[in-house]
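Standup notes, protein team

Yesterday: finished cleaning the Emticicia aquatica set.
Today: Vitamin B12 transporter BtuB structure.
Blockers: none.

Input for Vitamin B12 transporter BtuB:
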Amino acid sequence: MKKTFILFLLILCYKTTIAGEIHGVVINKDKGVSFASITFLGTKIGSQADENGKFILRNTPNGKQTIQISSVGFKTKQLIINILVDKVTNLNIEIEEENAQLREVVVTGTMKETTINESPAPIQILNPTFFRKNPTPSLFESLSMVNGVRPQLNCNVCNTGDIHINGMEGPYTMVMIDGMPIVSALSSVYGLSGIPNSMVERIEVMKGPASTLYGSEAVGGLINVITKNPSKAPKFNFDFNSSTYLENNFDASTKAQIGKFDVLFSGNYFLFNRRWDINNDNFTDITLQNRISLFNKWSMQRPNNRTFNIAARYIYEDRFGGEMQWSKTNRGDSKVYGESIFTKRIEMLGNYQLPIKNQKITFNFSFNQHQQNSVYGNTIYLATQRIAFGQLLWDKKISNNHDALFGATLRRTFYDDNTPVTQISTTQNAPDLIWLPGIFGQDEVTINAKNKLLLGIRYDYNSKHGSIASPRINWKFSPNKSNIMRLSLGNGYRVVNLFSEDHAALTGSRKVLIINDLKPERSYNSNLDYQHFFTFGKGYGNIQLNGFYTYFANKIIADYDQNPELVVFDNLKGYGISKGVALNAEFSFISGLKLFAGTTFMDVYRVENHQKINQIQTPHLTGNYAFSYALNKIQLTFDLTGNFYSPMRLPVVRAYGDTRPEYSPWFGIHNIQATKRLPNGINIYGGIKNLTNFLPKDPIFRADSPFSQQFDPSYNYAPMQGIRGFVGIRWSIF
């Protein structure tokens, strides 16, 4: 009897741990995926689909289980199912092609929703998951992971920076939020570090001129930050990380339904208040920062799929760099040198589709105010900038082969400061006010299934510089789904904004000298892009090759070599050239290994009096990589990321006995991270940044005191942060 009872218990235990069977089919676009692999995570139980995608799993554990489905050329998918004892579970599992990225929606290249595969202009999409391979507190630092895009620190004291695309300096790069010119001119110097990752759904990068659609500043390329859609955002998202440098970054967001609106609330707080001086020059290696950013977006879907979105953001930052003994009582005096910058910034942007029957007409609008209270030693800089922008778009499909877009824009820029830039006399100030109305049109012509042509032209009238026209043409040739070739020809223009380029004069105690009335720059650009997608035995990949060439006329030059006490602005009496090639390669294996590597070779220079002069702080060769390996059974991922740079020309002050090398050495910054995925959407991560502990030498030159004309902090080519560890926790609830 006892033996019978024990046998009964064993059978019962067996019955409660083993379910019946799982019958299913793996499909893609209603077709079975042949020989797909189906496995239970954390077990050895698995199966393989037949040639029609059908499979059977026997002796499966009961309760909630996670199965993983993978196949060459398709995205790996994980699915949580609840298995009941003695029951047959039927599953119909759909997986996506890995090349589904070709169907991702983009808006930047044509100002209307299209897919990467169909876009005549080459666009690169970057998702937050890509940036999490090397977590950073702001967009500015994150972009170092993008091939051909380089965040450049321009001052070793206040750590101002800008974004270089294909070697062209920051003023040539337009940074937008939801297609609106939010970050420009004055705000481009400090505003880039105030864009947190918590508000970002994706980032679209377009290399090459885009003045036809976006006007001035979009000469070298543009970065369009697409904010999260409240209806698709997580119900709750939390991310906190800290480093051994005591940098603390906190991101959080939540969404709610208020009336007919989906609402997203997002906030970021970054605090770094530890003074470091590893090179013992009595100056802070990196600036102290106390920054808060609040973002709120309301979205409503109206009848006939019309949308209405409105968003607002507030930023406050207290930033300091300078001598180690500086205190706030020294702000603006001549005793202890410090650079203290207070920034207050508000933004508002939105779009509304007009209720006009059978027509898609959208009104976009934005407004931002940037207030800055700064001291650079004993130089006080006070400035206010306001930009109001309105845009009316008419998206009109003329026929099956012609898809047109027409637009009218109006931009008003107000700028005032306490420098000679806006002073008529010592007692009278004249704020800079620019009106910029414009119209544009484009026609996307589908010639046949393989060829597409995009023709566009823009006309702007600048209240200071008069009429400016910018045409462009894009051609896309795609013989099949695996190969895409794009050719772009365009013309762009740029109107100078002095502060965005002469902040080095304030921090380096130089004076600004404008030789003549500055004329708008003109650029003539060509860009050839080829991309190939392929699959191989145990994975898939794609290779992208891009060649670019830009010729500049009337190039506006900030000359630091003519006189060590001046920054001389003038239109170049010659021409400028930016040319190069870029290569990206990406591979993904079913084993869990993913590899990405990119490199850009470029030559950026100007020719003046028959002499070639290389652009400062622009290396000939840059590269980046990201290697990831996922151990799915234990839910652990390793990421190795990094950048490398060839020597670049640096600003030296030979007139005052500056003996520092004119060119930087070869160098690289490398990082490693491990991420552990826990139940309920919790991730714990940690790692090491700057594994090789690289630090630039002699970043600050001062033959005398930092208040003298000999003081120069612009000799910069790499961050002044050595090796450091970091840890963080991330939690998302959908």
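Follow-up from PR in the comments: Residues 4-18 have pLDDT under 50 and may be disordered.
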